[in-house]
Amino acid sequence: MSNNDFKFTAPGMDNESAVRTVKVLSQRLVALLDLQLTLKHIHWNVVGPNFIGVHEMLDPQVDAVRDMTDTIAERIATLGGVPNGTPKAIVEGRSWEDYSLGKGLVVDHLVALDKVYDGVNSDHRKAIGLLGEIDPVSEDMITGQLADLEQFQWFVRAHLESSSGELKQ
């Protein structure tokens, strides 16, 4: 995306900063759209002991992540960018492999979901560092989201943790 692609941006923000911010936010949008779909996929396909607890734990996470994607997309538009949430944009924007489990046991899905959260949350943290240099409003937005995402990962890990604090791998 070049600086010429923006007809406007937020008052007080230069075009170059807006373009850089939109690039970071677009990557987070793709990650969260993918996470939202992955969470719902797990919700539909988890089986075995503790099924209902995990099944019911995931829907509020789906809803919260959906809200996060909406917030990011609207921030992109506010800055003069064009949010792209099409399936093609998600697939082309990913730098990770697709979630590979279908129908599976609770523990298998939660181990895999913990790894998904590792990637999403560490990339959100990197985005905070980048945004801190160019847009404190977007930095604050992503920071708030990360607090929720880290709590969601804690919920997942609570199912995987032993009494000695070890996580199932």
UniProtKB/TrEMBL annotation:
Q: Ferritin/DPS domain spans which residues?
A: 24-161
Q: What PROSITE patterns does the annotation carry?
A: DPS_1
Q: Name one GO molecular function term.
A: ferric iron binding
| A Pfam family matched in the record | Ferritin
Membrane-spanning residues where?
none
Q: Which Gene3D superfamilies match?
A: 1.20.1260.10
Question: Could you tell me which NCBIfam families the record lists for this protein?
Answer: PRK09448.1 (NF006975)
Family under the similarity heading: Belongs to the Dps family.
Name of protein: DNA starvation/stationary phase protection protein Dps
Lineage from the top down? Bacteria, Pseudomonadati, Pseudomonadota, Gammaproteobacteria, Alteromonadales
